[in-house]
Design brief:
336 residues; alpha/beta; Rossmann fold; 2 domains; five-stranded parallel beta sheet; three-stranded antiparallel beta sheet; 10 helices
Length: 336
């Protein structure tokens, strides 16, 4: 683990007994704030199967629940789900990446994405849910997942209560368990600050998220369920603007790497951690470039291929299979 936290007060955290350890063979889905994207990227880089934010980045618990309800149902989006402002069409459930100047194209892209993710999500064994804020923005009486660059004067700003957050969290747990009773569900609060409208509101918002989550998780049976302290690691352990980028809001890569290391060390099986380190070593070998007729390079590729094929029995992820094909193609190219 990186030494970023030297001389800092360490968060006393360990995985609860009721939640089985994560493994390299789990299928992960991340839903929530941009911090979800950061953690998912690192798992993907370590060759694990991940899905991240099928509706784009979402920040509040109610919109996250909406996303999961759509993805874990058989419904499709229709004209009643389409909103419009200044010639741009969008839904209350998606981020701006789906916005369109044509309502039919919007419905086509959102439904195609829904179908593409639906079967994968139902097969996921780990759900990592990241709450970003309790602040919500209502447009035409609906809580929006994203403001779609519409002027704020068109919205009514609100704040979810702790009770509403508790209810949304319990509904998320119940919904996931309908499809996979043994899915491992991990909740966390994003350490990313929200300056809109101001940092005082951000502090209140994060406190509400923590209260609502704590109440919800304490009321559940604890089976395959846990809270991971991303927010606390940054605020109480690292607690230094050196761990934020120049905007003072988002984490540096080094800080995100540290949180990811804590997740690995505290929540993954030891054998899976060893496998991840093995994969990282092979990725470095595979990533090397070579000049033509460099026999040592191709010898290393042959060794890497054999190790990957052995790893496939332990870690049969899509990315491992892609790497095997990639290395085989490099060896074939040398023969040709």
């Amino acid at each position: 683990m990186t030494d970023i936290a030297n001389n800092h007060t360490l968060i006393d955290f360990s995985k609860p007994d009721g939640c089985p350890a994560l493994t390299v063979n789990d299928k992960f889905i991340f839903v929530g704030s941009c911090f979800s994207d950061e953690m998912a990227k690192r798992l993907t880089d370590d060759c694990m199967d991940t899905i991240v934010n099928p509706f784009g980045t979402i920040y509040n618990p109610v919109s996250i629940l909406d996303c999961l309800q759509w993805c874990l149902s058989d419904k499709q989006f229709g004209t009643n789900d389409v909103l419009e402002f200044a010639g741009i069409y969008f839904t209350p459930y998606h981020s701006t990446i789906f916005d369109s100047c044509n309502s039919n194209k919007l419905l086509e892209s959102t439904n195609n994405s829904l179908e593409a993710y639906r079967s994968q999500m139902r097969q996921s064994s780990v759900f990592l849910i990241t709450y970003g804020t309790a602040v919500v923005w209502e447009y035409n009486g609906r809580i929006m997942a994203n403001c779609h660059k519409i002027p704020q004067t068109n919205f009514t700003r609100g704040m979810l209560t702790a009770q509403e957050i508790t209810q949304a969290t319990q509904d998320i747990v119940s919904l996931i368990r309908q499809y996979n009773p043994n899915a491992k569900i991990i909740f966390t609060i994003s350490p990313v600050r929200h300056k809109n409208p101001d940092l005082l509101t951000n502090s209140y918002s994060k406190a509400l998220l923590k209260v609502g989550l704590t109440e919800a998780l304490s009321a559940c049976d604890g089976h395959c369920l846990m809270y991971f302290p991303s927010f606390e690691i940054v605020i109480d352990q690292l607690r230094d603007y050196a761990h934020y980028t120049d905007d003072g809001v988002h984490l540096t890569d080094h800080a995100a790497d540290y949180i990811y290391d804590v997740l690995l060390q505290t929540c993954f099986e030891s054998d899976s951690i060893d496998t991840i380190h093995h994969i990282r070593r092979l990725l470095k070998i595979i990533g090397h470039r070579t000049t033509e007729h460099n026999q040592a390079y191709y010898d290393n590729m042959e060794k890497a291929l054999k190790e990957l094929q052995t790893l496939q029995s332990k870690c049969g992820t899509n990315r491992i299979m892609q790497l095997i094909n990639e290395v085989e193609n490099k060896i074939i190219a040398k023969i040709l």
